[in-house]
Amino acid sequence: MSDDLWIGAEQHGYAPQFRNTKAIRGVGFSTGFGTSHMMEDILSPPPRKLELEQEEGACEVSYYLHSAGTYGDFIDMRVNSVHCRQTLTRFSQFFLFPMMLFVYLVIRLGRDDTPWLYLSPAEAWLFGACLLLVLIDVCRPIRTPVRFHHNNREVYVFHKKALYRIPWKYCHIALMYAPHHIGQGAFTDAYNLNLWLYPDYCVNGKCGSQPVALNLCMCVGDPESAYDYWEFVRRFMEEGSDSLQHANEQKAWVLKIPHSDWSKKAKIIGWLLSPLFYCLLPFISPSQFATRFNPIRDRWPPEVHQWTGRKVSGY
């Protein structure tokens, strides 16, 4: 190892090699190391197949976790801000709400003149803050997914009002060690799977002069989920839809009750429980709730539908 090469811990039979790629990423991006280092395990170009010790088809989990729909000749993959919007909700659930509950019980158990159905200003403020954080998580705009087109050998991205048309063979994707995202009390490593957007491939809109890192997936502790995301995309683009079980579903997977595969009795129970389920869904999975019910979302420019050959706006 050296300052410009780190060998990561082996997981699933693979030890990532993080190299300092600052020289090819421009000056517009800073990490927890400052501006001198950017440690990445480069996955493309050229597209690199990872030999992970996993069950066959393990990467298919990305259809359920990250896909916005698969359509045979192209797939739409959500960005991190869409499929991982739970930070504020979890903060409210596991920090603010227990704090409010503690204050609520202390006041009522310590005093006899406070009604149980009354919220003091402090309690009301904490409760309102909990709801506000959940609301922010589910109401943030839904960004367009990244479209990987196998037949055209191109990648389409609409990011911050700039439209990119990237040839697959020049598509820069890398797993970045992300010290600025270290979680769990700074005892756990974090990783970003980034798609780098170079201004050379911007065909419409303002993109600036420096490459931009679009975060596809962020992992804490184990980068397996990010590698599954990459392998799902790589296998589709390199080997076609026949290489994946879920490459032509014509829709995104959604968490719902009742499920179409359930028995008649189970469906009746599911219908009865569905109001409770959808009331709790923002707290169970803010991402699933937002992608289903949030009307604030970006739209593909018409050029993308022309390149794709049909109009599909899955999220």
TrEMBL record:
Residue ranges crossing the lipid bilayer per the database entry: 91-110, 116-139, 268-285
Superkingdom to which the source organism belongs: Bacteria
Keywords on record: Membrane, Transmembrane, Transmembrane helix
One Pfam family in the UniProt entry: DUF6708
InterPro entries listed in its UniProt record: DUF6708
Span of domain DUF6708: 129-305
Record carries keyword Iron: no
Record protein name field: DUF6708 domain-containing protein
Source organism: Shewanella corallii
